[in-house]
Amino acid sequence: MGHGAGGETMQEFIASHIISHMPDAGMTVPLRSLDDAAVVDGIVFTTDGHTVKPLFFPGGDIGSLSVAGTVNDIAVIGGDPLALSCALIIEEGLDLNMVDRAMASLGRTAKEAGVPIATGDTKVMEAGAIDQMIVVTSAVGKRSPHMDQNLEVASKYRTVNNTWLTDDSTRDGDVIILSGNVGEHGIALLSFREGYGFESEVRSDIAPLNGLITEALKIGGVVAMKDPTRGGLANTLNEWSQKSGVGIEVEESSLPLTDPVRNAADLLGIDPLSIGNEGKVVVSCVAEMAEDVLKAMRGHQYGKNATIIGRATSKYRQVVLHTEIGGKRILEAPMGDPVPRIC
Amino acid sequence: MGHGAGGETMQEFIASHIISHMPDAGMTVPLRSLDDAAVVDGIVFTTDGHTVKPLFFPGGDIGSLSVAGTVNDIAVIGGDPLALSCALIIEEGLDLNMVDRAMASLGRTAKEAGVPIATGDTKVMEAGAIDQMIVVTSAVGKRSPHMDQNLEVASKYRTVNNTWLTDDSTRDGDVIILSGNVGEHGIALLSFREGYGFESEVRSDIAPLNGLITEALKIGGVVAMKDPTRGGLANTLNEWSQKSGVGIEVEESSLPLTDPVRNAADLLGIDPLSIGNEGKVVVSCVAEMAEDVLKAMRGHQYGKNATIIGRATSKYRQVVLHTEIGGKRILEAPMGDPVPRIC
Asked: Residue B73: inside a domain, yes or no?
């Protein structure tokens, strides 16, 4: 299961057994860079398989998750999502009401995001050959109309080499903004699945973020974005640090973490920074524009709790957490998300 | 299982429980038309889930199948495939050699088609929650550079209203060409799976057809194309007949059917016209250009056995088979493909 959990074990497995076999020539943002989406001939393109268990949980379901996750992957690289595809794999005999409920939720989330379902495919596997239902969504997008101006603003303050909001684009001095509370999706799912009872207080944060991201891009100065899904915030910051070749320091006291999430994580013995989110975006921004970008994000329903959590620095080469009691520790990339089948 | 078999039962299931929930506004070729691919803002887009069993079989495997099926769906509507995505769902504990072999085959087929793998996703499910491996491929493409001239040629001979090679574009008098032998994929798979032993003589026909299709478009006069996958040739011709509102008559004696496929189908009690193919294309063409298109197709390695099998006619409203003994019968749309998990 570690091979699919989104951490370092998975990166190694994917590199040696999957990507090594695949031709990926001629792309602007290629497969090998392992960004959230690829860019080929001006088209932004991404895919995500969803095997979440259970199919329905507090705050969302496999339908809303599938649309939000895929729309967000297009948006965080600087794309405007144009259309979604939906491939369903269904277990023979699955209650049709479950199919209807999941598809209705998928449709509602697509409408909220303003992205049509363009094409699809349905396969049925015999009972026992698949656990209920898998939804694989892909999406295509075009470059956001605000991207050129966004990068132009950034380039007033420092040299900007990236043309898309890729993982390798953060530099010394850039400010890191998180759009809201961490850990909610993973804790809600785990708690509900295992019957711990925290779900009355913690709900999944699933949300399509293309609207929020547009508000940030309109201000300008954003150089990288990523949604901290599998492996959580710890994985996102470590990917940026490694691919950009820069350290990132984070103030633990600034992390937006609710008490119910903190308590549940303590009791379950898992780090809320290593657990997946499905409605959050991490933004790397030139320092001079950070306050304006933050303000714009707070004006959007999905960015109300946005906050500055740290900054990139050449003092370190890793992700360093300044703890609430005055110490510091390295925030490692998790080996994988502690919660299996989270998405 | 009938809900996933590609026939009429499936069409009804998809319409009422899936598509009814999905927003699909603003597209040139929308979801509701159930064509092989959608067109949105000039981008051709398609997706296919592959649950084939077993993963490896005579003539192909889940890797080659995934690429060929998706590339073909882009090409048959008049698109030039630009990039593929690949979402893997893998059973925990699956032999890594199987992953490597399938991915190597997938990579080879993508190279042959000249289409890069742009983006991907990998999920692992616990043992028992998934049967070995599922591969979901999506593809994006642009309009083929030969499409405008192709339709211009067609419009010399009759009014042409379609701008893409959609299922509703065949008219009275158009000639139907099939690119080669029917039934090989389904028979090879069923025979191998069940141990009937025909696989020494019948191999799957899996092939990426974008090269062959380009040769036909270069000649011009093609108004519709479709790859006869689930539900086979019978399903393809019936979809065309229904969506185009025209009858299609087929000469049984003209159907390219090898003796091993015929014998195996007889013994297994299945109709080779209702069984899936993965390396064939059916072409609808204005009559005046049919011989030239046929000749161009025969010049390509995947069209060597191409042949004219019939023509569209307003004399009928259905698909009518002129039998070898001089009678005629209606070729119905199958309720589903007789072979489950064929792709």
From this structure: yes
